[in-house]
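Please check this protein record:
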Amino acid sequence: MKEKTESEKIQLSINEKLGINKYNEDEKGIHYGFYYGNKISSEVLNDICMGDDLIYEENIEELKEAFKDTIREFCENNNLDSEHIGMDNNDLLDDIIDQFNNNYQNDYHKYRYEKDGYIIEYSNDSDDLIVIKSPYWTFRGFCSPCAPNGCYLGSDGNIPSYCLDKDFFDEWIECPYDEYFEVKDFKEEEGA
């Protein structure tokens, strides 16, 4: 186990007192990794952006709920039983979603990439990458207060953090850490 720096010990103590000692940390004791999209290979970033658009999906769910609420209200106002109406398999709902898709435009996207053991969220507005799960981890330092208890992959430190493997980088953009390890070999005593 690597020895924690004095500032890391203080940060862990503050986090514990604030009740955020498990925020941005998984059940193994590995913290989320934070990095920037412009610091990884552009090809890989394009792959990440092919993942699910979380904001779009949230908008579709809100649209479906609004549709169902409108149908329920209509049924209640007309003494009809809304429980027997198949609101999820409705041609009208499909048409409404098609119209929504034809007009949908959002300059802000938040993608979720789940592939090869990774769960990564990327916000194109702020260029933030959050490595929620990874087959790999390394030692990094804590991130800024905007990501309590998370680790910045570009920093040095002694806190276990999920990270990206060398395939996320290329000859123009180097990996910011020299070594990383497989999560399957992680031992709890290496955690905070």
Notes: The first strand starts at residue 33 and ends at 36. Helices lie at 6-18, 42-48, 54-77, 91-103. The chain has four helices and nine strands.
